[in-house]
Amino acid sequence: MTRIHQLFDGWLQRSPDRVFLHLREGTMTYRDVGRFVDALEAELRADGVCPGDRVIVIAENCPEHLALILACSRVGAWSCGVNARMSPGEVAQFAHKADARVHYFTTAVSKAAAAHAHRFEARDSALPGLQRSPVREDAIAETGELGERVAAIIFTSGTSGTPKGVLMTHEGVTHFGRISAASRNLGEDDRSYAYLPMTHIFGLGTVLVASLYAGGTLLMRPSFDPADALDDLANQGVTQFQGPPTLFSRLLAHMEQIGVQHPPAPKLRYVYTGAGPLDMALKKRVEAAFGKPLHHGYGLSEYAGSVHLTRLNEWRHDTSTGYLVEGAETKVVDPATGRELPAGQRGEIWMRGVGLMPGYFRDPEATAAVMREGGWYASGDLGEFAADGALSVVGRLKEMIIRSGFNVYPAEVEAVLNAFPAIQRSAVVGKPEGEGNEQVIAFVELRHGATLDNDLLRAHLREHLAPYKQPSEVMLVREFPMTNSGKILKRKLLELR
């Protein structure tokens, strides 16, 4: 089975009355979801949507969005998920980039999607929970091999600039679904917490497609609320709990507020974080709270998922992303020369394999900028291998700070800051100050009820960091600017000063 919808259709034929989705308002079987998919497939075909057309879905998680992904796969169109919480300007930019035949909006679960629908003059769809825009007759479908291979476009988060449309193939996404399911022994008895947006590779690949591959069920939520998450862990049979580090940071902060140390989660057996750097302080706090190893991985949209994953039930004493997965190759190179570096030396992470994107949609310059001879993709991430083959990601090449001629990796400074008892999380950026030198500026969010003792913090920093790594300034923030996938928008932090 090499196309996304085939995974679903297989379960629909074998077990139509098995529950697939657990929602706040009830459950949906494969047969129930199949009716949604049938209705949307018929609507797409009636609207003239063809293989290689793009269908934008401005959405928060709901059965209708899931059904649209599957209906597009049946038709051969490319689903292009856009988080409904994006601004009108961002949505307009994505719509222009995608050259979409039609736009859908998950209006029943999202006021933000309903607002966007109004701006696009959307009308009712075949399903009550959706609206769709007028069909664009001038959209140009992609034909040939590319049109057949691609399943979806995922727009990058734009943490360092203008977002790009990553082309994700059916082969890459379904391959990773199998890898992801196998890495955590996912099966038909598992229930995954599905808050992660299906507009992002984490939600699409790790949660949805992996569950389709394994036959697991989804506890679907349109957004994350820590109080609701604790209730779901206690009462809804969640066995798989996954999210970016910011999810766990928010959950721990809420637990502190209500005085809970160990959340009741009687069915939980697997806890995982990805889509962002993990520091040791957060890892230890999560593992202490849940009594389980916090699994970790390294991946990105350009590879349709993870290329490294930690091993099931392995308690690691570092924050590495684990070991190479089947079908992928990685190496760490000198970014200036492309020369491969040995274990223990830091450099840029390159990758290639089954999941690698064919490129960025209609953007050959951006594609050429990241592709290297031999089919390698230059990630822009900095990492190093341990002797056992585990990969640690230490930061972004573009975020590396040059201070007094030395390299400062923000993640290293953030890990020290986050280990300070009063600090919930932090972000470190460089501020140019002339002649190729930069100041190290730290932004910190405090834990519930804490105050910051600057003298104690400075003593802590002196103990754990060389002088050139210590922040020139430490700024308090109430709330970090975030992407919708849970990443801190570092390029906006200096605007807060």
What does this entry look like structurally?
The longest helix has 17 residues, at 30-46. The model has no long low-confidence stretch (mean pLDDT 92). Among the domains are: 4-171, 3-Layer(aba) Sandwich (Rossmann fold); 400-496, 2-Layer Sandwich (GMP Synthetase, Chain A, domain 3). Strands 6-7-5-3-4-8-9 form a 7-stranded mixed sheet, with helices on both faces. Strands 12-13-14-15-16 form a 5-stranded mixed sheet. Strands 17, 18, 19, 20 and 21 form a 5-stranded antiparallel sheet that branches. It starts with a helix and ends in a 21-residue tail after the last strand. A hairpin with a 5-residue loop joins strand 20 and strand 21 (391-396). It is α/β, with parallel strands linked by helices and 497 residues long. It has helices spanning 4-14, 30-46, 63-75, 88-98, 111-119, 144-149, 170-183, 201-214, 226-235, 245-258, 280-290, 364-370, 410-418, 454-464; strands at residues 19-23, 26-29, 54-59, 78-83, 102-105, 123-124, 131-132, 150-155, 165-169, 191-194, 217-220, 240-243, 270-273, 294-300, 305-309, 323-324, 328-333, 347-353, 371-372, 376-385, 391-396, 401-403, 406-408, 423-434, 437-446, 473-476. The protein contains 14 helices and 26 strands.
